[in-house]
Amino acid sequence: MKNKIRLASLAIVMSVGYSYLNTAQAQNQGWNEGTKLEDAEVVVEKSRVIELPQAARNYEKFRINPPQIGDRNVRYRFNDYRLPSQDIELQMRVLTIKQDELTKLYGNYLKAGLGNYGSLYLKGYFHNKRSDVASYGAQVSHISSSRGPVDKDNSAVSNSDISLNGERYLKGFTVGGDLKYGREKRYFYGYEPLVDGAEVDRDTIKQVFNRVQAQGFFHNQTSGAPFLYKANARVQYINDAYDMSESNFAVDLRSEYGIDELSAFKVDADLSFLSHQDSSSVSRGFFKVHAAYERKLNALRLTLGAKVAYTGDDVNSTRNFNVYPMVQLGLEPVEGNLLIYGGIGGDLERTTLYSLTQENPYLAPNVQVADVNKGLELYGGFQANIANYVHLNGRVAYQNFRNLYFFNNNAADPSKFDLIYDDGVTNVFNVFAEASFNYSDEIRLGLKADYNSYNTDDLEQPFHRPELMASVYGTYNFYDKILFNSELYYIGDSFGQITQMDGTTVLRQTDSIIDLNLKADYRFTNNFTVFLMANNIFGKKYERFVNYPNKSVNLLGGVTYSF
């Protein structure tokens, strides 16, 4: 069909070309002969009709059936191909990164030293090293002076302690405890001078304290749980050379439940059963519960709560049952750096012979001990951090006390001290200030001052309670080679009352105390260090308690071995 169309098209083109050629020739002849071209008409007629035959369309002239699917059992054969062994040394080197070595820890040390006044100093500290499972250790110490500031060995002193401690870290839980034993030997050298040069029998003025403390605790304070708690149970026991003994079983609980990120609820509880054996037997119960709600309101910090406390004392018409409302309002304009606060509250403080004899070891036998009742306290203060180096703390308070104890010289033996109480309410105006500067591990400076103005109701003076106690301290680490420590402290004067032979009393005033202590350690190696301690550098035999002068300059030097 395509060939027929091509032939027809060629015939038309040749016909038109032939006519055009004749016309061109005639025009040339006419132009040459000067004749006129006549009109001509060419007619092309297409009369042929091209018809194509119909194509036959045949489907599925033959059909192929799909093959039938049958069951096929395929068998696999596994052959273990082994290469022949070849003794070839491959010179291959694996590049690794060198692990950083851990800094060696010296968790144990022994110290020994000698000084004037026949002083002997021994101390040992033993503890396990890097462990995320448990922490345990032991400490021993002994310091003694065979001579003292009065009548040589009549004012000797000796202190020895040994303790064991341990903690076990469980999943979200810590359990531990400690055991301590201490022995303290002193002499009542604050006696009045004897007439005719008579000597004091040393055995009659000796005092020996034996102290035992055992406690166990458990807490989850590192678990990050919303409810945090710490429970502690302890037993304290003390006896002396005058057949005095005291045993105290105490339990305390500290808990906090975080309601959300802005509020929390706290509950603290204290329980104590105490038995005191002296010329008579005394049992003293104690119980206290403190509940408080804390809330953050932007920059405001609000605490609302109350304390309920009970004491079994019957000294000086004691109030056995007490309730103390607690309100505190704080303002934190710069979070974490400045807090200004104020509030109202009160407290009942447990008092034991275990702690009193640590404060004043020259107590007389058969003293009456009572818990301190802080009935009302109005306070305000601030806490500030400056550039993470300077920390400031200040507090002002007006307090009302019942059964606030004072030390006064015993009427029969002024070398011993009685516990006396104000019959009414003792008002105290307190100002506390503290500032510290810490720069890395090199320089540390600090200042602390505590001022108390006592207004007694019945007592003539606040016996042996100075108004002002202050201290300035500092440490300097020189290239981890030399370590300096210094402390300058001040204790204001106080009063004691001496009963003379005729029954009259005389007030005795102690001098103000200014004491400077220095200590220097020089490290020869990581294991060996020598040290020198100088106490009371000004050499003043001051009296903290009436008739009890302190040592003059006391030097002590020795060596430390760490391992």
From TrEMBL:
Keyword Signal: yes
Coiled coil: none
Subcellular location, principal: membrane
Signal peptide positions on this chain: 1-26
Superkingdom of the organism of origin: Bacteria
Source organism per UniProt: Pontibacter oryzae
One GO location term (cellular component): cell outer membrane
Protein's name in the database: TonB-dependent receptor
Keywords: Cell outer membrane, Membrane, Signal
Gene3D superfamilies in the record: TonB-dependent receptor, beta-barrel domain (2.40.170.20)
InterPro entries: Beta-barrel_TonB_sf
Compartments, record wording: Cell outer membrane
